[in-house]
């Protein structure tokens, strides 16, 4: 049915994934990704480039090529959880191969589903300590959420898109910190707060990062705002106490 996908091309596939007992755990009628970008399981990363458009293939994947030793919790495209150390049988149909990375217009619901899939994949990498791959997946998720739409989102869809963007930006900040890039982490927090000024997670991390830079007065303002969102947070109380001692060391003597 035509040439196999080349490096850098985008593919769309229909995927079914089943456990050894036949239980269906993954179903996606149109999964779109670029092989090599790390936002799908490795069985698909390796297998789909061997296919031709229209071909149906079966891939029996050991757990390391599926969801690894920890397995995976459910998301929009998976039904029950994937148990730890579970091999999976994938039935894959290669629907389309496209040149270039220009995002195609999608309905808002499809943008949300694709963004969620890529964010989940980032969480998969993050949990395994591959923070560069996690960051790549979170950025791909943002790319999907911000891509062109076939129609304007309704009020509920727009609210969910914004919530997903904030989650991705917070996750980007966490990955940047793990990679030792404090300035990039701070920028991600500030981007999240432009969307959701009262987001407690972004406020706390921004306050911590400002404190680490010695910007104590700014940090205190941000952390007090975070405390208003979560008055019982021991972490925020501890950060404010640390700042107070640093600003007035004699008070702790």
Describe the overall structure:
Keywords: Coiled coil, Isomerase, Repeat, Rotamase, TPR repeat. Its EC number is 5.2.1.8. It is built from 8 helices and 4 strands. By secondary structure, the protein is an alpha+beta fold. It folds into 3 domains: 9-99, Chitinase A, domain 3 (Roll), CATH 3.10.50; 103-179 and 186-196, Tetratricopeptide repeat domain (Serine Threonine Protein Phosphatase 5, Tetratricopeptide repeat, Alpha Horseshoe); 199-243, no CATH class. A 4-stranded antiparallel beta sheet has the order 2-1-4-3. A hairpin with a 5-residue loop joins β1 and β2.
CATH class of the largest domain: Alpha Beta
- β content, as a range? 5-15%
pLDDT < 50 runs, ≥5 residues: none
Please provide the count of β strands: 4
Structural class determined from secondary elements: alpha+beta
CATH topology of the largest domain: Chitinase A, domain 3
Strands of the widest sheet, in order across it, are 2-1-4-3
GO biological process, one term: negative regulation of apoptotic process
Protein name: peptidylprolyl isomerase
Organism: Formicarius rufipectus
Coiled coil: 158-192
Write a short abstract of this structure.
The protein is α+β, with helices and mostly antiparallel strands. The chain has helices spanning 42-47, 108-127, 131-145, 155-178, 182-195, 200-212, 216-229, 234-247, and strands at residues 10-18, 24-33, 56-61, 88-98.
């Amino acid at each position: 049915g035509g040439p196999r996908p080349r490096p850098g091309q985008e593919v769309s596939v229909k995927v079914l994934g089943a456990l050894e007992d036949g239980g269906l755990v993954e179903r996606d009628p149109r999964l779109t990704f670029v092989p090599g970008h790390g936002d799908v399981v490795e069985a698909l990363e390796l297998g789909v480039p061997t296919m031709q458009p229209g071909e149906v293939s079966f891939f029996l994947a050991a757990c390391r090529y599926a969801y690894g030793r920890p397995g995976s919790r459910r998301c929009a495209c998976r039904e029950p959880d994937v148990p730890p150390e579970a091999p999976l049988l994938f039935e894959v149909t290669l629907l389309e191969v496209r040149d270039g990375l220009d995002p195609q217009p999608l309905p808002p619901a499809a943008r949300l589903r694709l963004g969620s899939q890529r964010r989940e994949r980032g969480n998969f990498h993050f949990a395994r300590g591959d923070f560069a791959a996690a960051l790549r997946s979170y950025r791909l998720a943002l790319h999907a959420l911000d891509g062109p739409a076939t129609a304007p989102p309704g009020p509920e869809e727009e609210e969910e898109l914004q919530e997903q963007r904030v989650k991705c930006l917070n996750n980007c900040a966490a990955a940047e910190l793990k990679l030792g890039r404090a300035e990039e982490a701070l920028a991600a927090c500030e981007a999240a707060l432009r969307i959701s000024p009262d987001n407690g997670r972004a406020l706390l991390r921004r306050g911590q990062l400002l404190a680490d830079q010695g910007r104590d007065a700014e940090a205190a303002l941000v952390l007090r705002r975070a405390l208003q969102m979560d008055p019982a947070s021991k972490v925020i109380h501890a950060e404010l106490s640390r700042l107070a001692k640093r600003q007035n060391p004699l008070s702790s003597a």
